[in-house]
Description:
Elements lengths: L1 H8 L4 E4 L4 E6 L3 H11 L8 E3 L19 H5 L4 E6 L16 E5 L4 H10 L3 E5 L23 E2 L13 E4 L5 E6 L4 H10 L3 E2 L5
Parallel strand pairs: 1-7, 3-5, 4-8, 9-10
Antiparallel strand pairs: 1-2, 2-6, 3-6, 4-5, 8-9
Helix pairs in contact: 1-4
Amino acid sequence: VSEAVDALRLGTIIAIPTDTLYGLAASARSAKGIQRLYNAKQRASQVPLAICVGEAGDVGKYAEVDHLRAGLLEALLPGPVTLLLRRKYPSSLSESLNPGSITVGVRVPDSDFIRAVARQYGHAIALTSANQSGAPSTLAVQEFEPIWDKCALVFDGGTISSSRLGSTIVDLSVPGEFYIKRKGDECDATQEKLYEYGLRLRSDPK
């Protein structure tokens, strides 16, 4: 964990297992680290990155959560879901993270190692899947071997038992409503929790 945190502080990127896929991670405070993520993935700069934090209670440091019912974040997180929320200003997120976007995707993976890294680092981590843009998502470190040399460290957590769909992306930026932007792992279970908290399904993204 300490080695991973040191790499993040240096502005380098690491490859790390999550609950859904292998990910590439960098400090969300580091413009240099964020640029390295885009370079490693050969990804267009306008495609946004998500952030990862260690606890559901950390989400409000970086995103607006006052409109959400008490207990909702804890019901969803940790888990295979990315929550799209309005980005909070000011925060410690780098201005180079998704410039121009009013929302930010936030994850708390159900994965002890990455959560321990986030907790020890003490700041948000920029997170994206460990594959080049357009290539399949990866469930084992061997599957993204061509980009190992872009990483300061590659953490091998074995093969991840997952659908390869990635996390379910839920837009919670509009009070009282939700929109499923991407159907991923445990999508139906996630929707059930949202209904339990009185939210209505929105059929269009707005």
